[in-house]
Amino acid sequence: MAKQSGLGEGATRTVLRRLKEKGYVDTIKSGCFLTPAGKLACKSIASWATDVVTVPRSELTMGEHQTAVALKGAGGSMRLGIEQRDSAIRVGAAAATTYIIQSGRFTIPGGSTNCEKDFPSTTWSFLKKSLAPKNNDVVILCGAQDEVSARLGALAAAITLL
Questions:
Q1: What is the pTM of this model?
Q2: Which residue, 116, 130, 133, 125, is CA-closest to 75?
């Protein structure tokens, strides 16, 4: 699990311990498995979060590798995006930017109301095509020096909006 997640063995044990404490995972001698509550939580997350997609390198965020995830209807949970950025950086990402879709446009809370106009890039059309975000959805774009850190960063940022 540690190798696949990109986390160290100690961090993986900590995550598993916390998931077990919350009743999402149980362990037996042969390994770990999701409890009914864990399966329900995964199903719930899958209903509002898209898969993490690899984004072609762009100037919109830092790092050699970039990923994005969309969270359906999560705009009401957003403040300024600082919590998402900090969470991504804590797991090894270089940066994360959080956008809310408003009136069909990518916006930055407390900043740009039309990112496509203010920051021209082909990345916007890629995000629209691959994530299909709708009004009040949140899109998190995360960059890192390696793909695992970029994916973990995007997921860590997304979890802050649960």
A1: 0.81
A2: 133
What DSSP line would sit under 27-44, residue for residue?
A: EETTEEEE-HHHHHHHHH
Q: Which of 132, 134, 137, 127 is nearest to 158 (CA)?
A: 137
Q: Within this chain, do residues 79 and 21 fall inside the same structural domain, yes or no? A: no
The predicted structure's pLDDT at residue 26: 93
Query: Tell me: the pLDDT tens digits for 101-110?
Result: 999 999 999 8
Q: Are 14 and 77 members of one domain?
A: no
Q: 20 lies in which domain range?
A: 1-46
At what angle are helices 147-159 and 82-90 packed, to 10 degrees? 140
At residue 128, the 3 state secondary structure works out as helix
